[in-house]
From TrEMBL, chain B:
GO terms for molecular function: lactate racemase activity. This is DUF2088 domain-containing protein. Transmembrane segments: none annotated. Residues 41-187 form the LarA-like N-terminal domain. It comes from Labedella endophytica. It holds the Pfam family Lar_N.
Amino acid sequence: MTGGTSGADDARAVTADGADGADVDAVAVAADALTEALGAGPLEGQHLLLTGATGFVGQALLEKLLAEYPSTRISVLIRPRGSLTGAARLTSLMRKPVFRPWRDRVGAEEADRQVAERVTVIESSMGDVAELPGDLDVLIHSASTVSFDPPIDEAFRTNVQGAVGLYEALLRTGSDPHVVHVSTAYVGGIRKGAVVEASLEHAVDWRTELAAALSARTAVEASSRRPEVLRSLIAAARAESGKVGPQAVAAAAEEGRREWVQKRLVEYGRARAQSLGWADVYALTKSMSERVAEDLWAGRGHRLSVVRPAIIESALAHPFPGWIDGFKVADPLIIAYGRGLLPEFPGLPDSILDIIPVDIVVNATLAVAATPPPVETPQYFHLSSGGRNPLTFRDMYENVLQYFSATPIPDDQRGHIRVPSWAFPGSKAIERTLALNEKANLAAKRLLLRLPSSTTTRGWMRGVSARAQDLELLRSYADLYQSYTQAEIVYDDSRTAALGRAVAPERQDVHGFDAASIDWDDYMQRVHLPAVTTLMKTFSSRPRAKAVGEKALPTNPRAVAVFDLEGTILASNIVEQYLWVRLASLPTSHWPSELADLLASLPRYLQAERRDRGEFIRTFLRRYEGVDDARMRALVRESVSDALLARMKPEAIRRVRAHRAAGHRTVLVTGAVDVLVEPFASLFDEVVASSMHVRDGRWTGYLSGPPLVDEARAAWLRLYAERHDLDLSASYAYGDSHADRAWMELVGHPQAVNPDAALYQHAVQKHWRIRLWHDLRHRRLDSLVGVLRSESALPPSEPAPTPRPPKTHSAEETPA
Amino acid sequence: MTRPGYVLTVDEDTPPLVVFRGGSVRLERLPVGSDVVYPADAEPAVRSLSAELDRVLAAPEGSEPLERLLTAGTVLTIVVDDLSQPVTATSGADVRQRIVERVLEMAARAGVDDVRVLAATGLRRRLTSHELLSTLGERVFRSFDAASLTSHDAEDRDGMTSIGELPDGSPIEVASRLVESDVVVAVRLATAVGDEGSASLVPSFASAATARALTPVPGTDRVTAQQRDDALAPFVDRLGDRARVVTIAATLADAPIQRVSAFLGKREREWTLLDRVRSRIVRSTAAVLPEAVRPVRFPGIGHVVTSVRAGAPSAVHASTDAFLRTTRLANPPARADIALFGLPDTGYGTSGAPLDPISVATLGLGQVFDGVAGEPVVREGGVVILSHPLTPSFHPIHHAAYVDFFSDVLRDSTDAAVIAERFEDDFARDDWYRHLYRTSSAHHALHPFHAWYATSAAREHLSDVIVVGGDRETASQLGFRAATTLEDALDMAGHRDGGDTSLTFVHGTPVRPAALA
């Protein structure tokens, strides 16, 4: 083609390197069209529809259109979310930082007026596209998923089926807008070498894949209900929540199944993508959607352009340097490094990190939108930097190192965080270290769960949990960034470059998009890293452990405070109480045999306790068989009550009285025998304890009702609350062991008292209040001595009954 | 004849002196020029308690012989003074046991069959059966059933009778059993001037409300000490129209129980080599053994009986006082700028456990006005240094109210008037404390208050109280300061070597203040 302006000559001259004739023509046509458009003003008076306006690129596109394309009318497709209509979402969108410079420049009133006049909201979701306007000149489709590893059905539904719905709706209007389909450079798949700007070469049928992906969920759901899967889930749930009770196990098992389904679908996605040659399901679905656009739009006689940006990061200049909306792909890595969490990284130092600032993407997209290709000849543009201005991983690392060495992230525990130096040992070495650390941490956690609870072990548990979090982070990064940093792909962007050169010099500042002109060091140090660290401070993830002050209890006659006894209020347990009572009522000569028998039965009791607390209580209380009821009560009244009171925790008593003073109902629930709980009865409004079955004035050793522990206690609490019209959400519960979780979860203010490791973990996760109550350092021996002394002072009543030898398994024993 | 007390002026030759510090003992070198007040040597023990008892019971002071008062049909109540720590020097029966047995024999011979024994606990805790057993002996203990051998219960509203009125109109309520008796025999003990408590039995048997009204609180318009004494004067020899009181009082003196601690009774200048070795052993053991393991706080300081008197309380009280005054220092030193008191744990009602901080304060500050010297050894605005570890340990039952008093009340204010107004009512009405006082063995909720009020006069008088060796947090909660060594404490008190601040150290065991009994 001859004639024309200097712009067209330039274009032709430049594309002489390596491009063939047909391409030259296409580009020339494009250059001419652009020149024409530039004469009148690009997109002048046109009606443009934008999808994905609430996303990162979408916001930037909308902002650019409003700020720099004053005559363009814009329709946005916004899905209503929850109670927010599309229009409401637009209003809140306009408040975001990206629009601030424009709003400041024209004034808020003018900005709102322009929006009202130029922007129309079409409420619709991708799956069910509403009627589209029939007078569109341009459609920019930038809506897609945001995460890299969603379940396969979600990925296909949003990226592929969404595109299908959109294009079908567009076809229905009968109009002929120029469609700009925003894809991603990574549709290039896993390969080495240069990738050109052309249609993807593969034979994958998007229809088949779409159908298969959507039906995958049904298949996986069915698979998750297989007995083998369910059994292993139940076993895992029981190991974790068995002591809490059957309901907790069921709930944990079902949640485990749902997690299993999600994980499996993610696996489906990753595996299918990799089997077809893409890195992940995101890249797979984006390439499928390109095919959809080609088939349904370009293939039916319309004009299609495809832009493929690489990793989009913060803006170079517009709307302001460093603008970014949330962390993008490379950013969590940067932050983790800045916080000293990444000792090393799997990545080749020479591999290219293809970053492109968002304002360059926007300018390029709009330029593409203004220069439609011929009908049925879609054109492709790579928006990347790796072709002509590569940023290697080592460059990036050195910039980050320099930045964080100069401005380290402050940490209130350490002053400032010192960032590690990387040596790039290679991915295998790193994988080994990571796997080793994970195993070690898991082993430590398992061990800690077995140890008895104390301040030291709780501290360790905290450390182990924090370390587990860090390792999880490392693992997720290592997996995620594997493909992005090992890649040896270069995305050739000559077409984009040519298009960029066609923009008039005086407009380059505002509308230019030359990736080769980016000074990476400057971008990193001045623009991107500061932006990311500012963002990080907004989302600081480790909340400082604040010292929680004690708030006064609100008065509430409908609130109840439920207390467990052993370990919470009393620093004693039923074995010790039994010892007091028994030794006090036995003559000294019988002590050795009693103690020996108790020791011998200890393993049996421990086993029962591990299985089920109710079982343990029942088994242990059998030892009280034959005890005289009246004498036991006298003994408790005289001596054992003092010993029990001496083991009280004064902070617990104070707390109970505080609840009383606030008008709350105070309830003591315990599996211990009611006789032993009498000394505390006056502190509480209600005492629920086990009661022994009495026959002929003697205890039979059997309980007259099942002991209230774990979930039985939860059921009782629910009933109690209903019966007395109590508000559980305003109530309080105090317990010390993992088994208490069942009923503690029912109230609005659960508090863990001296929790064991498992309860501590749960409490930390659920943000329960954790208290440490100590008994006054009154020694156990003193209590025992006190009991024995007082017993000796008791008036000798009728001779103590010959103590029944504790039940053994020998067959010759006949009950007396 | 025993040596009178004397004042030693420290010079370069003076050896380090014994200073109690709770469960252990220190040997401290005092600065040159300080005064050390040594109490008089202990009076010798009576050789035969039974002979003495016979003698005084046959010829009591101010009343007829007890035998003549007891006839068949007499309603007799025996009241026992409550020093919870068993008071014996050697293994043998407690002096109270001996006296009570003698009285019971007399009563049995006279044909009296309505006898009850009450422990004069006042607002202090009930004595447990075991304590009653060890105090009164097996014979006495087994002769009575649970209803006839009890401690006083100040919260027993139905068991009180009013016998008079206080100046502010509130009634004086006393245990009914006393008022309804014909003869009340009071077995009382005294170790130093003033620690026998009131001559009248009313404070030990009053109802909680009366006890509250009888306690002066400086800074408020409650009854003053003088008004109280005047109000109780008619109730010394008689309690109402019917009951007649006869006292049998024994005076006690310190006597080390074991040979190991014999050095404690001697003046340091007179220590033999063996004493020096023993002191070394005791100090090393105390330093090495962790507190929790030391079974007895310290090789015990016990008591011996130095005299016995019987008769009408007014007469006996006066003559006991006069007797004890002879052991007082004849020429007390001039009021010093700084006074130092060493406080042991034993002998103050806690049976082997360390003293709780409030009792330490009461004991230590009680020495200012009611100590060995009779007059305050420290001038107004001076500083008192107490030597005690001040561990914040409380007995979970005995000190149930103390724990809350210490953490909640003292944190708010240490001023007696403020405390009385803000907190006394709540504690007095609290059901839980009352439950523990009546059914278990806790001190009454008002007891910590009264103990603290007793320190007001001393705290007003002084400008600062420093506890050497004391726990810092606990000390600050009490409004005191803590120092690690004696030198630091003296420094904090403003003492300068070569300067002109005077220091007086009161040697030996402190006098038990009535409020702590």
